[in-house]
Amino acid sequence: MAASEQHDAAGRAESELHLPARRSELSAARKYAGDVGAEFGLDADGCYDFVLAVNEAVTNAIRHGASDERGLIHLSIVADGERVTFSVRDFGSFVMPVMDGPVNSDHGRGLAMMAGLVDEVQLEIEPGGTTVRLSKVRT
Predict the structure, then answer these.
(1) Rounded distance between C-alpha atoms, residue 133 and residue 135, angstroms
(2) With contact defined as beta carbons under 8 Å apart, do 16 and 3 qualify?
(3) Across residues 29-53, what is the average pLDDT?
(4) How far is it, in rounded angstroms, from Cα 6 to Cα 87?
């Protein structure tokens, strides 16, 4: 699906992409994040971290969230000043992971991993869905 992009008078850029909630679409989400990160001016390491965090957020939306009535999850990017923010919105009910399993468990650590890769992670939980926002500052 094609991304739509807008720029306002203050130079703030916004872009949206709606993807089918399927794992086969992860590469499109990574490409979208990588293209925007590079265009925004993230260095190679920063862009890699940004894309990896986005991949985790989109994977979680596909695996644990729910799509909209058309089978889509919503991705958006806002580049404002020295910060780029990627949002992933799904329409399911968020359930906080329980960390009572073994330390080497491969589930329940996504938010912590994302927090280690970007400068800020925001989680917005509403009755109609969940939005994860990942922000990276250009250095």
Answers:
(1) 7
(2) yes
(3) 96
(4) 16
Q: Is the pLDDT of residue 85 over 80?
A: yes
Can you tell me the distance from the alpha carbon of 126 to that of 92, in angstroms, rounded to the nearest whole number? Answer: 9
Q: What is the pTM of this model?
A: 0.84
Both structure tokens of 80: 């404002």
How do the residues of the chain divide into helix, strand and coil, expressed in percent and rounded to 5? Answer: 35, 30, 35
Tell me the C-alpha to C-alpha distance, in Å, between residue 85 and each of 77, 105, 133, 137, 138.
6, 29, 6, 9, 11
pLDDT one-digit tens code per residue, 14-37: 999 999 999 999 999 999 999 999
Q: How far apart are CA 119 and CA 99, in angstroms?
A: 24
